[in-house]
Amino acid sequence: MKEIMYTEKMSNRLNELLTKNYDAEAGYKKAAEIVENPQLKQFFETKAQERYDFGHELKTEIRNTGGNPDKGTSFTGDAHRTWMSIKDTFSSNDEEAILEEVKRGEKAAVEEYQEVIADTTLPPTTKNILTKQVSNVENTLQNVKNFETIVA
């Protein structure tokens, strides 16, 4: 019984990350459509693809831990709030504001990843996947900061 509860808990946590990645992918695609700076456009397109790939890794891991992956972006709860505010910002076509919102979204993602990684009962395969993904998100955060100096 304990293992089933753990699997359900694990599945729920991974699905939360999966949903965040779906939302981030959608946010990056939207950002790529709006910005005019070609380097920024390419960066956002690359990040959208990266988050799509993260989603597939998470889906596989959720199945491997006995869970069922969620489908699509979130529409309830606070999982999508960060990226939803980015969508509002996009209407202004202000690259600095868009980067600020991306930075906020990525900081929230790092925190959520770190919470899940801190679970000492996490299977090693799951921990490895999440550690790699959060490292990429942290690199993205640094790249966003670099872009902010360029577009400022």
Write the layout of secondary structure elements.
Blueprint: H1 2-34, H2 38-64, H3 81-90, H4 95-117, H5 124-151
Helix pairs in contact: 1-2, 1-3, 1-4, 2-5, 3-4, 4-5
What do these coordinates show?
- The protein is mainly alpha-helical and 152 residues long.
- The protein has five helices and no strands.
- α2 runs antiparallel to α5.
- The chain is elongated, with a radius of gyration of 16 Å.
- Strand proportion: under 5%
Coarse structural class: mainly alpha
Summarize the main sheet: none
**Low-confidence spans:** 76-81
Mean pLDDT equals: 84
Order of helices and strands: HHHHH
Task: Give the key terms.
152 residues, 0% strand, elongated, mainly alpha
How would you summarize what this structure contains?
The protein has 152 residues and is an all-alpha fold. It has helices at 2-34, 38-64, 81-90, 95-117, 124-151.
